[in-house]
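Cross-check.
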Amino acid sequence: MITGPTFEEMLHPHKIASDIRQRALEARVNNPLDPINLFNITWRDVNNAIYHVVLPKQLTGVDANIVVIYGKEFPSGSHKVGAAYSVLLEKELFGEVDPGQNTLVWPSTGNYGIGGAWVGGRMGCKSLVVLPAGMSRERFERIEGYGAEVIKTFGSESNVKEIYDETHRLRHSDPNIRILNQFEVMGNYRFHYHVTGNTVVELADELQAKGIGAGKISAFVSAMGSAGTIAAGDRLKQVWPDHKIVGLEPIQCPTLYNNGYGSHDIQGIGDKHVTWIHNVLNMDAIMCIDDIECKKGLQVFAEEAGCETLVNRYHVDPVLVEQLSTLFGISGICNILGAIKTAKYFRMGENDVIVTVATDALDRYHSVMTDMAQTYGSLDEAETVGRVEGVFKGMRTDWVQPGTPENRERWHNLKYYTWVEQQGKTVEELDAQRDPQWWIEHQQMIQEIDSRLVTLREAQHT
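Predicted model, tokenized:
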């Protein structure tokens, strides 16, 4: 059995055995398909600094500090690889997956499937990724490049029901199929609760040492695809009880906001249902973001004229602009816009730190940006100023719904229609999630999982 780091080693990679850590760091660039790269699944770089960027206030237009942790440096180019690894590791440790026997199916709208293709191949497993046909060309190319097969289903980002239908067909077609459903399995939740959540906790001190914030995180903002990333907020709220957890949806598919539905193009989020692993009873607000504003915002960083305007007109440090020009995908811009909206809605000021996430990077959206330029034209200085002032600084506080007891109850009840009516859960299982202890017990399983992995390592070396 090929394995990688424990949860604790993903959080603190300096705890990895020094020879393994060194080999992994060398393989990052020289041999990215080597299984040793499993030990590079972490939010920290070679110097154990957290991958993050503080957005310039010339862009955000708010006094609060908006900080983006970014997944570009993870193996496969997205932090979703961490969730995929954690899910597969747990399934193997508990005897639910045999790499020599089972074929893994990764239901996805993009990055989880890419991560699953990468992880499955490195851990010696055959993988199938079920992905809507309307996703970006770069996603399919990356999956196939990692050696996995792709099954294309109807539609685009919000057509998850069609993905589920295909996984049901696959499960019944072969007893050796194992479905690793990111929307349901708690390994996804645990990765983000422990690794992402505690990384952000530790980032608060790192930022304060640089004169940013007061040693706490005021809000964590994340759009929901599988709702794995937003689990980090559960950890943050345990550290700071007044912390705000803010979820984001597309205006074009406002499922939690008003039971809405529809198609949209913020790839990776807004999947037209409430996922099993989403602790909606702990969420302080749901906000909706326009998908076209996200794509128009991404053009600012994707095109040379946009970057030049940030430097010459807005006087943003050119070194920072060069860094920003590669860091974000469409959902990353969505999260940034949501963080600006959060700062305005909750009236946060210069001592507040709002953290959000760039799940992937621009390299997965060049084809989308080409289409944008053809449809809306390439940017010049005047158009860039319009985007900065209108899309970023002009972000409104409409489409906001607070996490009142009544709204949280409604968000929770929406799980019934997917998970009980369609996916075989019981009402008793759904009702159990109302108890905070249900979530705590899943959080506490991390210690057992790490212990099982350490025991396995010891057995393999005897």
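The longest strand covers residues 126-132. The two ends are 15 Å apart (CA to CA). Passed to J.P. for a second look.
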